[in-house]
Write a structure and sequence with these properties.
Number of strands: 14
Largest sheet: 7 strands, mixed
Helix content: under 10%
């Protein structure tokens, strides 16, 4: 299983940050799938692409809102830093739900990753308030932060 260098926003039983994954023959291609589950024993760090070996365990009588499979990390085959100049898109508002959370030191992506919006903070707030769908293009910043480059 390959895990992408950033997480995407998703809506399930609430608002989430989900892994973008490739499995089997998809690995190395351009298609990434949303992965809502956790991987037991895996410590994700933003800005790195991981190749993992995982074990899938069927869950007997899974909860109605949960997965029927539990994922357990066997080992990390590789962990490579994403190129510094790579940009990526994250959905900041979708289906009327904003994934931006405010903190005393500025906006965050669901309380987890600080967004460095520099001179675009007012535009970000305005777009979140006025549009139904907002996507941000980002670069990786220091200390697992996200540097906002543009809004769509």
């Amino acid at each position: 299983m390959r895990i992408n260098h950033f997480r995407q926003t998703g809506i399930g039983e609430g608002l989430h940050l989900v892994y973008l994954v490739q499995e089997s023959e998809e690995i190395g291609g351009g298609k990434w799938s949303f992965f809502y589950d956790e991987i037991e024993g895996f410590d994700y760090e933003l800005g790195y692409i991981y190749d993992l070996k995982v074990r899938k365990v069927e869950i007997e009588n899974p909860p109605l809102d949960g997965s029927a499979v539990k994922y357990i990390l066997v080992n990390v085959r590789s962990k490579e830093k994403a190129p510094a100049n790579v940009s990526f898109d994250i959905n900041l508002k979708n289906f009327g739900h904003s994934f931006i959370t405010e903190h005393e030191d500025g906006p965050y992506l669901l309380y987890q990753y600080k967004i460095d919006c520099s001179n675009m903070c007012e535009s970000l707030q305005s777009e979140i308030e006025s549009k139904e769908i907002v996507t941000g293009t980002f670069f990786h910043g220091p200390d697992e932060s996200l540097i906002l480059h543009s809004l769509k």
